[in-house]
Structures are given as C-alpha cells and as structure tokens.
Design goal:
The complex is a heterodimer of chains A (118) and B (162). By secondary structure, chain A is α+β, with helices and mostly antiparallel strands. In chain A, 69% of the residues lie in helices and 13% in strands. Chain A has a 3-stranded antiparallel β-sheet. In chain A, strand 2 (63-68) and strand 3 (71-76) form a beta hairpin. The longest helix of chain A is centred in the last third of the chain and has 39 residues, at 79-117. Chain B has 162 residues and is an alpha+beta fold. Chain B has a single domain (3-141), classed as START domain (Alpha-D-Glucose-1,6-Bisphosphate, Chain A, domain 4, 2-Layer Sandwich). The longest helix of chain B is centred in the N-terminal third of the chain and has 9 residues, at 14-22. The model of chain B is unreliable at 121-162 (pLDDT under 50). The chains are: A alpha+beta (118), B alpha+beta (162). Chains A and B meet through helix 1, helix 2 and helix 5 of A and strand 1, helix 1, strand 7, helix 3 and helix 4 of B.
Chain lengths: 118, 162
C-alpha cells in the first residue's frame, strides 16, 4: 500500500526536475503571483507548452490557478514543498543527534585503546 | 530522489567507528534522536543479513527500525535498507529508504559520510536521471552540515544525488 501522502511527494519531486518549471516557481516566489501570459514571456516556448508545465505544477500541488475574466492568475502553494522539507528536517534531527553521540562514543573507545597500547 | 548527507570528522580510527556502527553494544550507545535508551539492538553484519533496533525517546514513545545490509566492507563502507517497523513516522510505514555510510581514514581519525536517501518510484527515478539542480539542491543544502571534531559547526555538503 502506498499512502496518499507518499504518492503526493513523488509528484512534487518529479515536478521539480524540469528547468522551466523551476524557473516558473522561482519567479512566483519573487513576485507572489503572475498571469499565465506574464509567466510565458521569458521562455522561448509557446503558450500551450507553458500551460502544460503549469498543469504538472498544479497536479503536484505546487501552484494554484484562479481565473478572473480572461486573466488566469498563478500563485505559489507552499504546502508540497513543506512536506519535502519536513522529511529532511526529521532525518536531519535524527541522524545529526545520533552521529554526535556516535562520535563521542568512538572517541572514548579510541582513548581507551591508546591507553591500553601504552 | 532526495537525500540527506552529513559529514563528520571523528577522533577515532575507522575500525573503532565501524565497530560502533555495527555491534549491538556500540549501537546501544548512540542510536536515536535524543538521549532516550536503546531497548534492543540486533545485527547480522553480512550482505543479506538484517539489523533491528528499538529505542525509546524521552517523551516515552517507542520506535523500531529494521533493514538489510546491502554492502559490508569492514572499516570502510556500510549500505543498508531502512524501514520503520514500529512507531516512527506513520506516513512512512511502507516506505523503504537507504542508508549509506563511508568511512575515510584522515590524520585526525575518521571522516564519516552519512547519507539517508529516500527511494522513489520508477517514474521519478527516470526523471531524476535527467538531472537535479536549482531549487531542490538549495532546499537540501540547508539540511546538511559538517561538524568538526573540535565542535565547530559549518554548513558544507549539499544534496547528494546518485
């Protein structure tokens, strides 16, 4: 069984592997929100291609889109990134603390071994 | 795939560090996120052998992880699969991850490079092969650090993609 949260995270990481999609996210981070037309401007690709990238980011939960009249506004949705960061943070805490004690223990053993050798 | 890499320098020779990493007596001294006790440690240190470690945290919760040794090179390298079998993170109970440990002899003792990698689906693995850069690297770099033996802490190693 693969739970919802796990599948969701897979999609998030997959969505981040594309240069254009990362550039879109970086821009949204700076500008908070932008229209689809504005987002497409810096790229040498056509609007439909940009729309496809936005679909992938949307499915991964990284952005939200809202429509007002003819303008579609895109915003960053930080929850998906947060989940990935939580994983790293959790294991950073676990292993960093464990390795501190591992080092202290090994250094004690090293001191003992050197005393014996004298 | 995302992974966490920690590098530490330890003032002890690699054989002593390796023993601390692999023997039940050694593991009992350090395993776990806080100073709570290790309740059970079993290791069968050979390729295909398994380990099982149960610990109690200071908040009273008990957690158990287990896995299989995938590579064993005495005093040099240890690779094992990792899974929570009790307690741990409820989200991750069916998730298998991978721990890779490399020991390098240095003048002061041992440099240990410790990597915990989250294994991904075939889908994201193939997209991973096209290369990671940018956002995710930056994200992971924040979580890696090197703590030198004399206690100075420095940020050093970033996302470690293989």
């Amino acid at each position: 069984m693969v739970n919802y949260s796990e599948r969701h995270l897979d999609r998030t990481f997959a969505a981040l592997t594309d240069r254009t999609r990362r550039a879109i996210l970086a821009r949204l981070e700076r500008e908070h929100s932008a229209s689809v037309t504005e987002l497409a401007k810096p790229f040498a690709i056509k609007l439909p291609a940009v729309m496809k990238h936005l679909d992938v980011l949307d499915e991964a939960g990284l952005i939200t889109r809202s429509k007002s009249g003819r303008v579609v506004t895109v915003r960053l949705s930080p929850e998906a990134m947060k989940e990935a960061m939580d994983w790293l943070r959790r294991y950073e805490r676990f292993w960093s603390s464990s390795l501190d004690r591992l080092a202290a223990y090994a250094e004690r053993k090293e001191d003992e071994a050197r005393k014996k050798a004298r | 795939m995302t992974s966490l890499t920690l590098v530490r320098r330890i003032r002890a020779r690699p054989s002593i560090v390796f023993e601390a990493l692999t023997t039940p007596d050694g593991i009992a001294q350090w395993w776990g996120p806080d100073d709570g006790p290790v309740l059970l440690a079993e290791t069968d240190v050979r390729v295909g052998g398994r380990f099982q470690v149960r610990f109690r945290m200071l908040d009273g919760s008990e957690h158990e992880s287990s896995g299989e040794y995938l590579e064993v090179v005495a005093s040099k390298r240890l690779v094992m699969s990792w899974q929570w079998t009790s307690g741990g993170e409820p989200d991750e109970h069916d998730e298998l991850s991978r721990v890779e440990i490399d020991l390098k002899p240095i003048d002061a003792g041992t440099e240990i490079t410790f990597t915990h990698a989250r294994l991904k689906t075939e889908d994201s693995r193939s997209s991973h092969e096209r290369g990671w850069a940018g956002a995710l690297d930056k994200l992971a770099r924040r979580f890696s650090s090197e703590r030198l033996a004399d206690g100075r802490a420095e940020d050093l190693i970033g996302e470690h993609a293989k």
